[in-house]
Write the structure tokens for this entry.
Amino acid sequence: MELYQQTIEELHKALTEKKIKPKDILDSVYQRVDAVDHKVKAYLLVTKELAYTMAATAEDRLMKNENVTELTGIPIGLKDNMCLEGVPTTCAAKMLAGYRPPYTATVLKKLTAAGAVFTGKLNMDEYAFGSSTENSSFFPTHNPWDLERVPGGSSGGSAAAVSADMCIASLGSDTGGSIKQPASLCSVTGFKPTYGRVSRYGLIAFASSLDQIGPMTKTVRDNAIMLKHIAGADENDSTSAAINIPNYLKDIKTDVKGLRIGLPEEYFIDGIQKEVKEAMQAAIEVYKKLGAQIVKVNLLHTDYAVDVYYVVAPAEASSNLARFDGVQYGLRDTAAQNMIDMYKRSRQQGFGKETKRRIMLGTYVLSSGYYEAYYKKAQKVRALIKQDFDEAFKKVDILLTPTSPTTSFKIGEKSGDPLTMYLSDIFTIAPNLAGLPGMSIPCGFDEKNLPIGMQLLAKPFGEQDIFNAANAFQYATDWHTRRPKI
């Protein structure tokens, strides 16, 4: 087995036993990038010079046996909306082409402190607005399982890079499903932590009450390692939670006897792809054999989730993107005749079609005369959606649903119909509105050999419950071990 195919756990063992060096892993990963990324197009920027410097630092730690963690020497890819001082960070947007942040995101500081190695910046939908990575201002990313299809979004580059073995793990961000949905479509393990579990400082904001950074990995156990190292309160982020961080990997279990798994009736509906339904039923049977209890529950306000999300998220996006005006940084139209004209022309040229659509929608629902009718009402319904989950978790420990109603669709298939595209996140939006932790794990393939993902949800800060349930499933199945032939 090539080094780039191995997991964090396997590589950590080899590193600490002095069988390999961090440079060996990095060489292997970059050879893989050179071999397949011209087809997949997951990377916007490969940071080789930085990576080899970080690998040398990691090797020094290992030689001295000082400050060695499970991530020391492990190559990790970064979604391109996380600021790394001096390294171009674009959010896959023309508006930010050439922008080099003067500071580093807290999660990246934590990974650096753990000895990780950063391989580069990964493609995404512009400003994280999308479910397919087709909205990148530079180029679409392709699904490693079928290069004519999308990898999902907005963290499509992060999912595709892990799936294609072009990094050992990656970071994504999730607002309405942007970690879980591409994880499902690319057959990787993706975790969106509880809102507040991971600092958002240095993450270029989409919707501040929803955004959360999370890991994308080859296994549940690798995911537990990653989350332990990036979680925690941060004085630079007032929304981060000062709650104890478990040692997720140390505490992980494989025994789920007696675990109460809830099946929300509203998530098992007509319109779901036939093979997705079958994969969910097969997964339920696996849990039954493992001794879990299956309980049907109701989430009565589920039908309103997409409507609520597309009021709340664009409203916050409209506010957050007001800063991109051509004045302090980013693209500026130099032909403008005056200040107002410069604002208009810079934003017109710098923003893509989907970004403009969401800014206009968000500005409208926040405008005088419409705020009460739309934004305030949406926030009230959001509270009802959260109450549904609170009630459900009084009866069950975990919720199990499909991650996506379908497997990956072809590039260009939905780009002309925004509403159809928005429905790609129908099963991930409601949990995010409630701030819940959620994971997508591989659970099957359709007749075209396209991956199917299963979503597991827990109460706020119940990440350990998800790790336990997901780990038990991966011990009992081999879906997560399969790799695409590119």
In short: The chain is about 40% helix and 15% strand. The first strand starts at residue 43 and ends at 46. The CA atoms of residues 415 and 421 lie 7 Å apart.
